[in-house]
Amino acid sequence: MDVDSVAHLVRPIVDDVAARGVPAVLEYTERFDRVRPATVRVPAAELTKALDALDPAVRAALTEAIDRVRRVHADQRRTDVTTQVVPGGTVTERWVPVGRVGLYAPGGLAVYPSTVVMNVVPAQLAGVESLVVCSPPQAEFGGLPHPTILAAAELLGVEEVWAAGGAQAVALLAHGGTDTDGTALAPVDLVTGPGNIYLTAAKRLLRGVIGIDAEAGPTEIAVLADHTADPVHVAADLISQAEHDTLAASVLVTTSPSLADAVDAELQRQIIATKHAERIMTALRGKQSGCVLVSDVDDGLKVVDAYAAEHLEIQTKDAKDVANRVRNAGAVFVGAYAPVSLGDYCAGSNHVLPTGGCARHSSGLSVQTFLRGIHVIDYTADALREVADRVVALANAEDLPAHGQAVTARFTR
Fold first, then answer.
1. Is a pLDDT exceeding 70 seen at residue 109?
2. Cα–Cα distance, 282 to 243 (Å, whole number)
3. How far apart are alpha carbons 396 and 85 in whole angstroms?
4. N or C: which end of the chain has fewer CB within 10 A?
5. Distance between CA atoms of residues 259 and 268, nearest Å
6. pLDDT per residue over 260-287, tens digit each?
């Protein structure tokens, strides 16, 4: 995904929203989404209405997903730690939540209430005091975001939802504005959540004005499999990711030519029965998807570590041991009964993960995304005096003598 290729299209939108606020957002919304919401902020009554009308089976599934994600993410919250460096000298690391965050839920080819869960839960557990869910308005629903998005927000106790999407949404989150009814739309400190290339370009352009989680690209799955894998399972999992987007990547890395052939046959059989067959076929035939034959599992691990997939399934003999040797992946799914779909919804893990090889250096969304570590330094006079000559020596070595004088001045009067 070449974000730079669309930056020249996105920059005027970002600058316009910064200058004119909500009127600019509504104009771009009408152009791109073919609808003009009455207000950007969704009325609270619409959230309640959406939850009341939600299919009971979907509500039960969302409730279960929320519970499991909360259980996993509750264990991620760090505690403040104080280290006594010397007698009279301590450094405390405090973990402080971001003040206000914007959480983006896409609304393009599919609707993602699960992404609302994955963004909101860790923010809440981090202690974020103010958050807003932002999702594109839908002409089908009178300029509101998809009702399942609204229902998920209500189920999570979110009080603020904006009907805005794409680059203009990120710009409004960064700069804030005044809604059509005079309501203040406060800017945020951090924006998280996946989106298309235009939204990603806006995140890149506004980084510094706001913090961002990552520049997410099209979704990816890699499956490392040997002769023990079931081709029915492997094919189904490759298809499940290809269903997202024509740019989605589905990659099989295997030691077994016979498995590769069997998976190809299964793909042909299963795709015919899927709802989004054309989209899936485009993704699977794209240059981003394919099969890599390797001589053994060790070589397979080298391939998947180099690829650093967003989602990596291990379907080999001794899958747990193999999974423990993986260095680069957004999330690792072990064995025949941990498909990526489980992680998308109800494993308890987070599905907002690094793409495009970024798993080599970055992690998925977590409670830590919404926390900042602040060092608090507390030294007594004796503790400072004891190390003063070391500070002076280093300050002079860097030709910054005033740094040293800031210490010695405390003891020379």
1. no
2. 10
3. 24
4. C
5. 14
6. 999 999 999 999 999 999 999 999 999 9
